[in-house]
Amino acid sequence: MKTITLAAALALGFAAHTAQAADKMNDLEIAHTAYTAGQIDIRYAHLALAVSENAEVRAFAETMIRDHTAVNVAAGDLITKLNVTPQDNDLSRTLVKGAADKRAELMSLSGKAFDCAYAQNELGYHQVVNQTVEGVFIPTVTVEPLKDLLSEALVTFKVHEGHAEQMVNGLKCG
Amino acid sequence: MRLTRRQVCFGAGGAIVGSALPASGSVPVVVEIRAFAFDPAEVTIRAGETVRWINHDFAPHTATDDEGNWDTEELEKGGQATIRFDTPGTYPYFCAYHPHMKGVVIVTA
Asked: Which residues of B touch A63 (CB under 8 A)?
């Protein structure tokens, strides 16, 4: 339950921030934030591969790198096709700052403590991102190809969320 | 979109990877990979016929034999691989990257 509580707290805080910011976000800002969210998870995964010796955690991290890279390549292709430039924004900066703090926290851990913290963060992170993409970004964007890309990416992210939940349960973090 | 094509022949002697399959005269049975699922999850073919997997997801996938005897290897979005099954039997498989994704190829004589 600790995981759910943490995730819920994260979701509430982030969702409140997101809902407030979404009114002011345009398509290019949403594209930037979505791309940034993927890059952040890739960095978490590289950290996990550098620290963890747990086979399940490492396999999950490799999947995150593989899948988020694929989604971001597709996003990059779309950006190129549309000939636009994503715009940095407050929400992207908030995500980046929060991720830097979380990585610093994770880097102070090792062994099972790291594995549990990484797994719980992955679950909470995907819950929050998925809630934001589904509830805010997709309804807000106006460019159809971006809406389609976010919708398809959400399918991937939801699978990750389920996978993260299995990882948390499997690690028996207590 | 990156298109890749791969063809494999799987028989009693194991998997043989090649640039082209011997003509079998039959149209491959297609398994679409979409939304992290094999569709259809179960296909039945005759010995000597082929199955073609096509990935429509952003995420790369594989179709990998449970016993490790054959493998499409990584299929990016738009990628496809064709495998010929020469030996009757039941061949369960999964995605090596997302192991909850499962399917089965049933080969009749």
From this structure: 97-98
